[in-house]
Design a protein that fits this description.
Elements (H helix, E strand, L loop, with lengths): L1 H9 L3 E6 L3 H4 L4 E4 L6 H11 L5 E5 L6 H9 L3 E3 L4 H13 L4 E3 L21 H9 L3 E7 L1 H4 L15 E7 L10 H23 L10
Parallel strand pairs: 1-7, 2-5, 2-6, 3-4, 3-5
Antiparallel strand pairs: 6-7
């Protein structure tokens, strides 16, 4: 319901293009990772997955659940709280979700990162996504997006929604699930590299440097 709500409400203001998301149809249970530049990242991802009739559970730092507004939204979306003091809590919850055939979405940078005007820039990836994949024996599916920080810039209190200047966001999926190495730190570096490669491709597509794709 929340994903459908975002899809309807955001349509006049934001064009969300999605490309190469077929992996989500072939593999229902996976750890999905994406770069994190804006508070608009999660609504954008929910809309994209809604088109596929897939509804991932999101892992979010537990302190966000203590806030009145975000806490209610996160619970409504079925988000899983990340307890850094006792990781076994969210790891076991995630294992149950994946066993039920539901994907898990996690943003491994752990916060908003990326330099303004440099869409390929990212922060260092924390090891949580790699540890989660190892703990659950799941593959990792990388996603890259550009344009969300133009809709809701870092530091802005509200998103910039203007129907007379409809902004464009592009979400690009990796071509396959990635296996995670036994070393979480090395695996996290590899996952970050995969996201950067996708970002370079996404920027080229959005800015017209690549052949115009058929969006889905």
């Amino acid at each position: 319901m929340l994903a459908a709500f975002f899809a309807v409400v955001l349509w006049p203001f934001v064009r969300i293009d999605t490309l190469r998301l077929g992996v989500a149809l072939r593999h229902t249970a996976a750890v999905v990772i994406a770069n994190h530049r804006s508070f608009f990242d999660v609504p954008m991802a929910l809309v994209a997955f809604h088109r596929l009739r897939r509804y991932p559970r999101v892992i979010v730092a537990s302190h966000w659940f203590d806030r009145f507004g975000t806490g209610r939204l996160l619970r409504l979306a079925g988000a899983i709280p990340l307890d850094r003091d006792d990781p076994s809590v969210h790891l076991d919850a995630a294992r149950q979700v994946l066993a039920a055939g539901v994907p898990i979405l996690i943003l491994p940078e752990g916060g908003l990162h990326g330099e303004p005007g440099q869409p390929i820039s990212t922060g260092e990836f924390k090891t949580g996504a790699a540890r989660l994949a190892l703990h659950c024996g799941a593959g990792v599916w990388p996603l890259a997006h550009v344009g969300t920080d133009e809709v809701w810039p870092k530091g802005a209190r509200f998103p910039r929604l203007n129907p007379f200047r409809r902004r464009r966001v592009l979400l690009l999926g990796g071509e396959k699930l990635l296996e995670v190495a036994d070393d979480p730190r090395a695996a996290s570096r590899d996952l970050r590299s995969s996201i950067v490669e996708l970002l370079e491709e996404a920027v080229d597509i959005r800015d017209g440097g690549a052949d115009a794709p058929s969006f889905s």
